[in-house]
């Protein structure tokens, strides 16, 4: 046996799932390689491809004291297969570590909150680059130190080949980024229930990651979801601005991979553009980034990456210590830590900061996640005993006993969970969208599936069992056929013969790869099936009782309100869903027959083996109970499905569409007599090659038409050869089409495909061509002049068809309906192709690195220019004038914001070229502000152009544009003052959500704008913008007051302004309008925020009233009941919270309270009741529920406590540090980087 001269770590894959400890793994490997187990050290053991429906496998990292013989026999190899008797698949031992490798499992699994992915650098080993230098290799900080410090984080390493000595590699940085995305998706990092991600990158790995993030932003729903899950990054010596290359060029000179080294040159245009784009996406995605730089300690070492490059020039920033720090090692060793290393502890601390990082600033509510059905939060809500104390006073706690329920009404109690609530929690409307979108069959087509006895489909429905597989390639009509089968009444009629005594349950799911995450996931399938089963057999809900009890933490019976409150927070994880479906399949209550129809299993967003095994497991699970199931599914004929289902009943659909394709070919050929005779002889070859795929035949016929009219059309041999060379796979065919696009038309082809793909509707032909013209130019004037020429008269069907066919090779098609010609994608698979990460590189080649616009950007420019088109006489003279669409402001906002979000690029350069008159027409301000101090009361028409651009940017949520505007124009003090009032004007009348407004406010704060005093002034001068309701209350012998409720979409904005005040509590207690009337804001969310920040609930305002006084005066001197106005409800909710915190009256006397109490006791109609049952509301109150009796109990205690309260001391807290500091640092860094473009 050869003893290792240098310790080396290997990776062992495909270990069976039952190997659950190091000893068992070493025993299995010992038997496989004929080596004593004492010679083997298992360093880690982790699960891969975990699924509730398929057998997981394990992966281990291994070290050998003596090398196994198979390695000695092939020392130059990096991967070895090991056959083990009794195992269905060979073990794989490798030293390259390519792809994703988990280093350990999180136990128990529900505590798994984060994935931490480490990406190695240029010419470094995926595993070894993170190990300590020297001979000691038993420690690896990602595997050993990270789980000790952060036990909810699971570490992964990602390996890829970046060896500079490989003379055959053509990989570019975009290629490496695409591969990274593919590996992330293959390992379920983008699934609906995937944990959040933190990514660590070293050297080139950081550039690959940045390129991957920019690619994710322009792709489909799944990729965007993966981008949302990335919460932060840690960069080690990443050459953001380039790296020294002299020694690298010697290695790659004249090799294909020289392009990678060239792109990493110092001040490379590619790197500078990528860095700017990445920083924009970093801001929009609310990520946190940490940069580390290496300090070279020896003059013999070359400085590969300068500190300036490693930190994106932030090393000299005043705030740099927060997000950057140096490591006293060379470029290679800066990521190699020994156990208990001080620098390693810093890195782990930075990872912890990412885990707790929140952006934007703290808020009360957050928008619901698009992948979840219940509101969730990253951290639990603060409890009463753990509230942050920041301003004002420490909350007084009187420890009041719970209020007495005087009504003691009998509330309904549940012994089982209501079926309708279970179904509503499972069902998601989008799950049915794919079925509805599938085009219905043409008349009389597909009838053969019921009539052809050879297919045995009808007999399978009547008496068959198991699985029936309809296979077929993309474009062969599988989905249309499945929809027809699922809807046709003959299916149910035939199933009734299955077992005569039972009415069968029929359920289905149609996967949709271009849809949302749920539409293409196993989770979405199980959700849909469970909901359909419960609708058809509500009694099955009883089986789920133990599962629901376990989930909500309480057993039945329980009150209805209690169950609703507990079940509201219930989240259906994939494990819960799998358990629920198993319970139904294993049931032994009654005989049940179920027939499932699943379409497009190849569009499942995961490993095909998982969904394949899921079908087989469904049949096995049902054998344990009284449920009998059979399944009909469709998919592409992938190897995974073929191995499992080929021997069972089913058929390939493309074997039965030959006649349709043949008819189409002859009809098309006969339309052109000049080529008919030549191409007729090729029809049999086309049919044979198409193999039933209608789309392929259509594309091939188009190619052959082009060849037939060219010089090669004279030679039938050349035509046959061209037919043979066409790719058989559709996606490969698409790639071949864009590669064959003439070089002069590649940019037009990119623009056309982007325009049609990013459009929200099918477009008329002239509009696509107008957008295309605008895509060529960077400014408004250029675009306007381009469309304002006589060339517009030349827009006709012939020239359009010629351009589209030449540039796009059939991927786009022109359709006609009622003499309206429109351009659309040839097939939905083309949209999938255009949105794939590699599309831009395929069509543009090296230019892809410098093209930062897409379809949203092109539409953005077109819609601006188009506003003046009706006055264009040339355009009016064209025959398309009557077909001009009318775009709304919402359409413009969608595209201009979409351009920012998907490209990471500001739109400032184009906006600055837009005429002021256009911006004035788009500005949605309701009125100019009143003159007040420095307030700019000039009309909009006399404002500087950049002020109008700023207002437009705020109103449309263009955050990157706001950053650039602030950096360019608003640095002087007088400019800053004017900007604040422009901000007020912008939000006055706009319909933006609170997130956009708060983000804009954060940008101003990060730019050192003085915001103190703005909250009060903004509210008083623009109260109509903030308030949704108002009631004026007149009190005898006391000043009147206004009760107002904040608009929900403005709440976070105002809270954001309040956080900038030295004393926000004092600010909100001194709101007086222009007439001198005190305004009391009774928003419950705002009162909760104030209480959490230390407001004294018994402190009077400038009119001498406490929060309790407002409630008593309102009840005494108005005729309102709580259910009559929104303000009443909000006042009562906020008052209950105040009373619970010990709030006392100050101005409302006992006499007034007695009057109110008598009114409450005598009224037959509830006055202060906000119980939803009494009010008849469909939804319960958001914060509290209270009856008149409960309010009387609270207020009685408050008045009884007046004497006692005078003896209590109120202790003011120590002022807390201002929140959001880290967000401000990030924004300042982004401002600085964008100013250096």
From TrEMBL:
Coiled coil: none annotated. Keywords: Repeat. It comes from the Eukaryota. Residues 368-389 are annotated as: Disordered. The keyword Repeat applies. Residues 368-382 have a biased composition (Polar residues). Residues 445-636 form the Nephrocystin 3-like N-terminal domain. Transmembrane segments: none annotated. Pfam families: NPHP3_N (PF24883). InterPro entries: AB_hydrolase_fold (IPR029058), NPHP3-like_N (IPR056884), P-loop_NTPase (IPR027417). This is Nephrocystin 3-like N-terminal domain-containing protein.
